[in-house]
Amino acid sequence: SLGREALAPQWDPPQVDTTRPHPARIYDYLLGGKDNFPADRAAAQVALRALPELRAMARANRAFLGRAVRFLARAGIDQFLDLGSGVPGPGHTAQVVRAVAPGARVVLVDYDPIVVAHSMALVDGGAGTGASASADGGSGVGRLAVVQADVRDPQELLDRVRVREVLDFRRPVAVLMVALLHFVAEDEDAPGIVARFVREVSAGSAVVISHATDGGQPERSQAARRGWDQAASRLVARSAGQIEGLFAGVEPVAPGVVPLPLWRPDGPVTDDVGMIWLNGGVGFKREA
Ligand code: SAM
């Protein structure tokens, strides 16, 4: 099986600075998780004071992730590249995929060493998650890999993913960028980053994106985003039009790029839609 030793060469030793807030751990705290530190909780409190709805937003985002992954698995996608995968708490990608498509392949990518360390537990043991990496005919290639990389350097990220040989890029892959791109600054070319991944994947592949808006309340949004000012990455809100623009190279499926609670809800929408300041959708790459 794919042990920690086998992965060590591609896995940077964790350089963990727990005194600085990190987006993954702030989000984990908002979701009620335990993988966070005092600096993360203090940052979250700054944000929550301005915007108590943030917890509901974090839950709505995780719920959207689950609906999008289930939708894609049912559409026949069996390879998932999860960029900015986050702490693997309840409803994370590997868990949702395993529940609907047990044979599917998943690569989790994050720049946060703590996320990588927690995600490695899924590879090593996977107890209770059903997400253990089973060896593939003795080749040493499993169905789940964890990669530490920064999405702002797509080429290096893709090189690190490809060397793991979990995903076959000749076949459709779902590229997830869920609550990720609002950590890419204005001058770091979020549309170009998405375009780079769309270029890399074959026709029939999909892109899943969710992204923060300012909810039409720029001042409250700015006050809340101060929570991320000292963090490893700051949080930028983009307009509905800018978020739609991230889907330039793909064709969004109905209902399009919308506030998350409105994207293919499982039942009656119980969220107050105006309270969830996140838009997103799922797009497919068509034949050239
Ligand atoms: N995608 C998960 C979800 O939606 O439930 C987690 C979202 S969490 C809000 C954002 C994640 O993106 C964090 O785990 C953070 O470490 C990661 N992240 C932020 N900037 C990143 C970057 N430049 N490269 C890779 N990961 C990044």
Automatic annotation (TrEMBL):
| Keywords of the record | Methyltransferase, Transferase
Gene3D superfamilies the UniProt entry points to: Vaccinia Virus protein VP39
Q: Which GO terms describe its biological process?
A: methylation
Q: Does the keyword Translocase apply?
A: no
**The UniProt record lists the keyword Methyltransferase:** yes
Q: What is this protein called?
A: SAM-dependent methyltransferase
The record's GO molecular-function terms, alphabetically, read: methyltransferase activity
In this chain, the stretch annotated as Disordered covers 1-20
Record-linked Pfam families: Methyltransf_19 (PF04672)
